[in-house]
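Inputs:
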Amino acid sequence: MKRLSFLFPLAMSVAFAGVAQAGTLDDVKARGSILCGVSGGLAGFSQPDDKGNWTGIDVDFCRAIAAAVFNDPTKVKFLPLTAKDRFTALQSREIDVLSRNTTWTSSRDTSLGLNFAGVVYYDAQGFMVRKAAKVSSALELSNTTVCVQSGTTTQLNLGDYFRSNNMKYEAVVFNTADEVIKAYESGRCDVFTTDVSQIYAERLKLSKPDDHMILPELISKEPLGPVVRHGDDQWFDIVKWVLFAMINAEEYDVSQKTIDQRLKSDRPDVKRLLGIEGNYGEQLGLTNDWVVRVIRHVGNYGEIFDRNVGANSRLKIERGLNKLWSKGGIQYAPPVR
Amino acid sequence: MTDVPVRRARARAGWIFRPRVRSAIIQILLVALIGLAGWYIFQTTRQNIAAQRLVTGFDFFWVESGFSISQTLIPFSENNTYARAFLVGLLNTLFVSALGVVLATVIGFLVGIGRLSQNWIISRLCGAYVEIIRNLPLLFQILFWYLAVLTALPVPRQSISIFDEIFVNNRGITVPKFVFGEGGGFVFGAAAIGILLAFVVSWLARRRTVATGKPLRVWPLNLALVVGLPLACFLYFGVSVSIDQPVLKGFNFVGGLRIIPEFLALLIALATYTAAFIAEIVRAGILAVPRGQTEAASALGLRRSKVLRLVVVPQALRVIVPPLTSQYLNLIKNSSLAVSIGYPDLVSVFAGTTLNNTGQAIEILGITMLVYLCISLVISFAMNIYNRRIALKER
Ligand SMILES: N[C@@H](CCC(=O)N[C@@H](CS)C(=O)NCC(=O)O)C(=O)O
């Protein structure tokens, strides 16, 4: 009854929370911190170190919101959530924003009562196997045992892929990422599957990462992004535009290094972004220097990517699709004006 | 003289202080308060759900599930609905619980009686079993059986094979499966009827023994019923039997019947853990039977095993059954720890995957709680009937 006893108060707080008052921003300001739902330990995305400091791209995104609201990136409380509990936690106001490698899908966006604020990372599902198994394609995986995490798009894509290719498989479903990778390592499963970025992260937890390989097939679209509740447009706008601002900042070459110099720029789009012209921050319910705060404390999109999952991290994942649109990728943000 | 009207007036004014009236008022107020609280919860829930535009209701039951389940007692695939997934999860919970209850009872009785044995080694071993198992957390034991024992077994290619028929590896235990051809249903029907008849025969025989005092030998007849009847049916219909032998094909064994390690780990842990508590209950029950009963039975010349079976255990059962019921209920509820090792029980399949894919937490948790409540009530009810049957009858 462990999980149930956790979910029960969550469900009940949907009942007891009192009628939803719109203002998440007011709640956040009154509380003095943002409650941010993250995954419990996924290198590059969100991971606490032994001192309890969180790092990762999902973590940095919440820090950016805190920077925009409080001018202080430390005013965030991180709540680790399993894939299974994350939406209930958001629905029941346990958290203000979910930043937890969560795939944007239509049902989550509608019937689950949620809004996706954009895409932090364009991902796709892949498969990891032992090199010793001598397979080179996912189409050779018939009659395998696959370890997968409960309540993910992963679990459903897996069903779609094997079903449509007429391959038999056995799915062993676990609650947490740690249980999944442990079962795979123990040999209970032949295949480990999740979003490719997360396979890279989880592979680091294996005792011999080099004995395992990722198959070339990518079987799904996994746009991962931050999520808020239905029914609070202002908060939705803030979360959405913090992400857009970070992407635009990279495009306009506004970074932690260049910010002081770019504040003197006379390009109108840079001036609007940095709040030197116009009152775009105030329109969001923030201050006009909101983007300056975000960049100074956290950095632009490219910086948080490189620092956590890209070239300057242990994962060393290529930017790929996550390059800016102007550089051959598909990261693109609407203009500030 | 003036006293009487004064007292009457006081009594009239003080009706509110009369105990019956007072308690009625308090009870009405309490019910009203609980009703009001319930109504408030219902209303706010509705408003919150509307504000977040959450989907509600039970239509999700008829949507295609899209996932697969590793152990299913009835056929299940991605094309089946959430309703069927619910059923699969429920059956898996009932299956592991039922086997767990039976095993725990058997082990518990053996250990409980063993602990009272005059043999020093047996009684110490049983004592050690109880003290060790009872004092380690159940979750730890489940993980131990799963990670340290069952998934630590060799990979399929290096399976431990028993007579080249049974294969033990980290994917579980694979055994050959008998496949009955046409008419197989009759054989199973005959077996069921045979078993039923054997029970009737035993019951009639016991009644006769009680009436006449003469013991009857019924086991040859029962054997004929249980084995002979299906066998005759089998030969009469000329049912073909083939054996579906497991063979290693690529990654895994194909064919045969496989028991998954998640199930085994959960079953072993639940049964041995609960058995430790049952053993103590059994020991207490036996010790509660007055010594005089044992001594009297021995004086009649009964062997020790008969003393136990005919005199001690029937009396001990009266003490044992009520606490035994709560152990059964604990076992069933503890079976939901399945989620930690990926056994697809009700909580994992329904309150887990289904809840996450549909997001309908209130409905799904409500149903799940209701199901556990129903199972528990049915068990309590059955055990209460049994308890009444074995209770001391005043004559
Ligand atoms: N993107 C997918 C999968 C997300 C997911 O939960 N991935 C796992 C894969 S390893 C994870 O992050 N687990 C971390 C944890 O449970 O702490 C989804 O949104 O459903």
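Residues 82-115 of chain B form the longest helix (34 residues). Flag for discussion at group meeting.
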